[in-house]
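can u pls check wat happens w/ shikimate-3-phosphate
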Amino acid sequence: MGVSRKVIIRCQSTPLAGSISVPGDKSISHRAVMLAALAEGTSVIRNWLPAGDTLATLEVIRALGVPVEVAQRNPDSWELRIEGRGLHGLRKPNVPLDCRNAGTGIRLLTGIMSGQSFSSILDGSEQLRKRPMGRVTEPLQRMGADIKSADGHAPLAIRPAALRGIEYSMSVASAQVKSAILLAGLFTDDAVRVYQPGPARDHTERLLMAMGTIITTQEGWVTLGEAPFGGRRLLPLDMTVPGDFSSAAFPLVAAAIVPDSDITIRQVGVNSTRIGLLEMLRVMGADVTISNQQVTGGELIADVRVKFSELHATDVSGPIVVRAIDEFPVWAVAASQATGLSTVRDAAELRVKEVDRIAVLAGELRRLGVTIDEHEDGFALEGPQRLRGTGVDSHDDHRLGMALAVAGLAADGVTLVDDASCMADSFPSFVETMQQLGASIEWVAAS
Ligand code: S3P
C-alpha cells in the first residue's frame, strides 16, 4: 500500500483551457502485455500505461518467466520490449500471482492460466477478493478448466487441464468475460464462440487479429475459429497504445460543466465500444467536436474538443450502458448540472465494480449536497443542483475519486477528496493533467 494522500480542490469556476493528452488505455495496456508474452518474438509497445493496475499485470507476466525491458520510461508512458515465450512457453511461478486491485487483470489472466501445463494461484487485494469471479470461472470450467475458488472469489487455484471449445451466451455484456474465454480458447484447437447481448469493448479481438488470428463477429457472436493447420501461434506486436477514453472522461466532463471552458484532448482512443459517454453528453447538448481521426494499432484515435455549454437531462438504458460502463461516476456529476431529470437503468453491473458504484457514488454525491435516488440497476437525479464543497472519500475507487474531484471543480468552496492515492490505479498524472488545464487542484498530505 502506498501512502494515502488527499486531493484538495480550492475553488469552483476557474475555466479550464488548453490542450492535453491522457495516458495510455488501461484495457489495452493489460491485454498488450499478456498477449505479447504469448507471442513468438519480441513485441514493442509504446505509450504503455504504468499505472497501479497495469503494473500488477506486468509483474505477473515477469513472474511467469517473460523478459520485459522498459526501453523508455516517462512518468506516465513507457515503451516496453517483451520477449514473447509462445503459447506454451510460460514458466511455473513460485509465488501466488498478485493482481492487486485489477479486476481486468485477474479475470483475463484466469483465461490464460487455465490453459497452462502447471498450477498457479491468482490473488489480489482485499478489494479484489470481494469481486465476483464466478462470471469467468463458470464458462472456463465448462471449457474443462480446473479452478478452485473461495466461494466464487479470489484467490483462485488453477491446475492443468485439457481445454475444449465452448458456445457461451453472456446474459450481461462483459468484455472481461468475453476476453477470458477467447484467451482460454488459444489453448484448445476447438472453436470458441461467445454471444454478447451488446457490443462490449473489443480490444482483445483487435489485438488478436493484429497478431494474425482470425476472429469474426456476427449478430452478436464473437468466434475464434478452430486452430489452423500447424496449430495456433501469435505474431509479436508493434504498436502504440491510444490515450484512454475512460481517463479523458474526467477532463471532458469538467470542461462541459465549468463555465467558459474550452479544452482539447489529443490522440485519445475513440473506439465505438468505448465512447458511450460522448454520445450521452452530446444528447445532453454538450459542445463536443472530434477531429484528426487516425487508425493506430487497429484502434481509432482522434482529438476531442469540448466547450462549456448548458446541459439538459437524458435517460440512459440498454446497449449504450456497457459502452459507458466506467464513466457513470463522472456522468452523474454532469447530470447533476443538467436541467431536468436524468436516469440510468440496466446498469446493475455498477454494483460489482471496484465498489458498489451506485450506493457509494450516491452517498458521496449527497455529501456534496446532491439529491439522488438509487435504483437496483441505476440511479436518477434532477438538475441543476448546487454542489457544495466538503470532504468526500474515494473509497479506494480510482474512478469515484476522480469523479468527485471533477464535482469539486464545479462546487462552491473547497472540496477535499480523501483516500485519493488510488487515482494512480488508472491515471497517475490526473492532478497534474488537470493543473495543466488551469484547474485549481493539488495534492495535500493526509493528516
Ligand atoms: C474492462 C471491462 C469492463 C470495465 C473494466 C475494464 C476490460 O468490465 O468495467 O474497467 O478491460 O475488459 P466488464 O467486462 O466487467 O464490464
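The CA atoms of residues 334 and 422 lie 22 Å apart.
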